[in-house]
């Protein structure tokens, strides 16, 4: 096993994971297929693209959504920090300027010396497969609900779901 952690997917989950792992002093290889290939819902070339609603829901400590965000603030979450810095008026909710939010997250990830961004799609039949990556290093799959077909197919095969 190599001395870095691989993350596939530079969306909300993948960028937060990359930031936290790098903060622990461990190098990260972050695979993101954009801007070479887009899912049907992603249109921006930036990382951490907020698809659909720009609201991260309630900021009130009296409900689960707000409490979770406050816990994330205390744990130095990259995404919640940048969401707080790019927020727009939305009553008791935390809503962001989605373009500024994604740009700021992208800058932080690109400027982190421990994070290498690889602009490549991962999956079955492609130059880089999940099977290759898991032989090399601990690998986090963070490709979200719109995981591309070649990777979804490979995951199904590896987990014998197919
Ligand atoms: C149409 C739609 C509307 C939604 N609306 C809302 C909403 O209003 N509120 C809400 O809370 N949630 C909504 N969601 C759910 C939303 O996707 C999640 O909240 C959040 O984006 C998930 O974050 P993620 O990091 O898991 O995935 P994403 O943010 O989707 O990030 C995944 C990343 O992986 C990349 N990727 C995919 N496959 C590969 C591959 N094979 N190789 C390399 N990179 C790859 C993608 O390009 C993307 O950048 C919506 C989802 C969809 C599809």
Summarize the structure.
With 162 residues, this protein is of the alpha/beta class. It has helices at 12-23, 64-74, 78-85, 98-110, 130-136, 149-158; strands spanning 5-8, 28-31, 55-58, 87-88, 93-96, 115-118, 138-141. The protein binds flavin-adenine dinucleotide (FAD).
CATH third-tier fold name: FAD/NAD(P)-binding domain
Q: Which small-molecule species are bound to the chains here?
A: flavin-adenine dinucleotide
By secondary-structure content and strand pairing, the structural class works out as alpha/beta
Number of helices: 6
Unreliable runs, pLDDT <50, ≥5 residues?
none
- CATH architecture title: 3-Layer(bba) Sandwich
Q: Please provide the count of β strands.
A: 7
DSSP strand content:
15-25%
* Distance, first to last CA: 28 Å
CATH class: Alpha Beta
Report the CATH superfamily: FAD/NAD(P)-binding domain
Reading the helices and strands in chain order gives EHEEHHEEHEHEH
Mean pLDDT: 96
Estimate percent helicity. Answer: 25-40%
The number of distinct structural domains comes to 1
Instruction: Tell the overall outline.
Output: globular
Please list the strands of the largest sheet in the order they lie side by side. 6-2-1-7
List keywords for this structure.
alpha/beta; 7 strands; four-stranded parallel sheet; 38% helix; globular; FAD/NAD(P)-binding domain; three-stranded antiparallel sheet; 162 residues; binds flavin-adenine dinucleotide
């Amino acid at each position: 096993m190599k001395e870095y952690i691989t993350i596939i997917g530079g969306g909300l989950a993948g960028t937060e994971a990359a930031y936290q792992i790098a903060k622990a002093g461990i190098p990260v290889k972050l695979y993101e297929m954009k801007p070479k290939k887009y899912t049907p819902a992603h249109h921006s070339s930036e990382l951490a693209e907020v698809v659909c609603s720009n609201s991260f829901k309630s900021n009130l400590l009296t409900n689960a959504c707000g409490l979770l965000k406050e816990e994330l603030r205390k744990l130095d979450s990259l995404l919640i920090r940048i969401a707080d810095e790019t927020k727009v008026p939305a009553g008791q909710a935390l809503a962001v300027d989605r373009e500024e939010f994604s740009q700021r997250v992208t800058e932080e990830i690109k400027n982190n010396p421990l994070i290498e961004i690889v602009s490549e799609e991962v999956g079955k039949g492609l130059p880089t497969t999940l099977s290759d990556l898991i032989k090399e290093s601990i690998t986090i799959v963070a490709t979200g609900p719109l995981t591309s077909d070649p990777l979804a197919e490979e995951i199904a095969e590896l987990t014998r779901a197919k």
